[in-house]
Amino acid sequence: MRNKYKILIIVLISIIASFLTYFFMTDKREKEKVLTIDFSFEKIIPNNTSILIRFEDFTSVWEDFKNTNFYPQLKTFLGWFWNEMPSETLVLSKDIKDIQEKIGFNLDEKNIFAILGKKIFFASWLENKDDKKILILANIDIKSTLYENMKILIERKIGVEEYKNITIDIFSENKYWTLFDDKLIISNDIGTIRKAIDLSLNLTDNCIFNSPEFKNHISKTISKNYIYIKTDKFDEPNYGFLKEQLDAILLSINIKNGILIKSFVFPKILLSKKSTRRITSLRFAPKDAMVYIAGDFAIPYLTSKSKIEKFVIGKESGYILIPNDSNNAIMIFCEVTNKKIFLKGFEKIINPTEKGIFNYTLPLFGSIQFKYFFLKNYFIICSPPEYSENIKNLIAKKEDLLINSSNYKKLEIPQKNNGIFYINISDLFFRLFKKNYLNFIEPSGGYTTYTPTCSESTYYMPMTDLSDSQWTDMLSELKKIASKKIDIERDRITYKNLLYLRESLNIYNAKTNRYPKKIDSLIEEYINEIPQELVKKSNEVSGKFNGSGGWFYKNGEIKLNVFGIDSSGTYYSRW
Q: Is 136 in contact with 122 (CB distance < 8 Å)?
């Protein structure tokens, strides 16, 4: 059961990732171009924001996405999921579904992108964990039907505030928004909306765009979609090391022809200049490797102040996961500058059972045999031990290496860098779960380079479209797994509503010394409305227990008017 939920989580993440892209049908990335970014919305965001997320031009993403085989399949699946999953579980969906009913618009791509337009920003403040402020900015298509419907929604406000001749609509505590020109500004803090209005009217220059740090950091991105994080605002203890060591983090997201992510990590202390180099360990990475990580970042350096240890350990280290007949082979390697001293220290820690072989107990895996050996200036640990011969043969032939494969070449990783990532996600997932759910994700990877001011990593995930039948099979299986989760949530919420009604009846009885003849008598004083049971989606009340749905009520007794068993195997009639 736990494995099935793992599958659901992984597949859902992959589905959502692919949903946000229009990358299919291409093998190579377009050459990166210098983009002129319009920073007009950044000039509306206060300077002290902790996290800023920007996405632009969602409309074009959706338009191209419609041309894939995946689009109609995903649209059907998400429509089913939206209608079947209880809104209480989907959190914000309860508000959205309520809006749908009140103003009568369908939640489809046309209306979604009428809201999002070509830009959407999300800003958050984290300096006070008990009072997290958010700010959402979006362009609105003022010619759309949705824009007119939103005016109807505004009539539901409970109050207004006039600020600089602009109306801020108040819907409830922590729900404020204003709609002027083509801007929709939403926040859970009215003071934050006022600041955004000031910046929009050019009454202050205290915006994030005028921050020298922001300008310096954002100049490194080549994408209009990014996530910018200022770590000095992190007060959570778990993230203290980020606040102490890093000035900012910038993620640049380009969703053309695959998912291309660039990350820029800016330390508080300038890095020493690290020259790029050819990662020579690629010469013993086999073509069918599922995971390959190498470089001067892959395994942390020894932190000891011993001059000997600094002298012994070289820069390059890494890890390889390789499929074999019985299970998977693993290799861990590091560059060594003085083999004699290194091996002497290693064998003090590890006692081999025979030459070059030792047993080691790993969490979850138990006792495993390893073999260690030197390959020129690399010290290699390999399991199972016999796989070491395969590696030696691979090096001798100089064939079937990862570096020579079409998958690796497609990633266009520069020959010289400070570190390499490579992962065959689809193959790895198949070997773990024996399912082909992720075969639309091609082998992906990236590299890291260092400059005195930041560490820059590039990661590229190419993807491909599948046939209609392949998408149908994958989503049908996902639907089976999701259905079980939906059944559990329906039962949970329905049972909670049943307890709510029973509690209200008991309170009524305590006050009046009797039970009401009809459940309707509880409305207003004891309950707002008769809640719905979600098994058959009814709130009807019957005096006959006939399984027609809704609730059975008679002489103070109330139970679910549904036949059958719940998701845990208990009869509904015994609730």
A: yes
Nearest CA among 463, 359, 416 for reference residue 70: 463
Cβ-based neighbours of 492, under 8 Å, separated by 6 or more: none
**Mean pLDDT for each consecutive 10-residue tract of the chain (575 residues)?**
41 40 38 62 90 78 75 85 75 57 59 66 81 84 70 78 89 83 86 91 87 87 84 68 82 80 87 80 89 76 45 80 81 86 79 75 75 87 84 78 90 91 91 83 92 89 88 88 89 90 89 87 82 87 87 89 89 87
Rg (the chain; Cα; Å): 30
511: Cα within 13 Å, side-chain hemisphere: 10
| Token pair in block for residue 47 | 């300077």
Separation of alpha carbons 269 and 365, rounded Å: 40
Q: Which residue do the tokens 């209480």 mark?
A: 88
Contacts of 275 (CB under 8 A, 6+ apart): none
Check: CB of residue 192 under 8 Å from CB of residue 46. Answer: yes
**Residue 277, strand partner residues:** 417
CB neighbour class for 427 (10 Å; exposed up to 12, middle 13-18, buried from 19): buried
Domain with CATH 3.40.1000 in the chain: 38-57+118-254
What is 353-396 written as a DSSP string?
A: SBTTEEEEEETTTEEEEEEEEEETTEEEEEESTTHHHHHHHHHH
Is the peptide bond preceding residue 86 cis, with omega within 30 degrees of 0?
no
**E strand map for 73-231:** 119-125, 133-139, 159-163, 166-172, 175-180, 183-187, 225-230
**pLDDT score of 385:** 85
Which helix (H) or strand (E) covers residue 488, if one does? helix 468-512
Strands (E), 148-204: 159-163, 166-172, 175-180, 183-187
d(CA 148, CA 442): 43
Tell me how far CA of residue 498 lies from CA of 120, 318, 485, 493, in angstroms: 41, 56, 20, 9
DSSP state of 144: S
38-57+118-254: CATH topology is Protein Transport Mog1p; Chain A (3.40.1000)
How far is Cα 326 from Cα 322, in angstroms, rounded to an integer?
Answer: 11
Cβ density class 186-208: b for 16+ within 10 Å, e for less: bbbbbebbbbbbbbbeeeeeebb
Q: Which pair of tokens denotes residue 453?
A: 């001011």
Q: Tell whether pTM > 0.70.
A: yes
Is-contact 457 263, C-beta < 8 A? Answer: yes
Q: How far apart are the first and last CA of the chain?
A: 24
DSSP-derived secondary structure for 401-468? BGGGSHHHHHTT--SEESEEEEE-HHHHHHHHHS--TTTTBPPEEEEEEE-SS-EEEEEEE-B----H
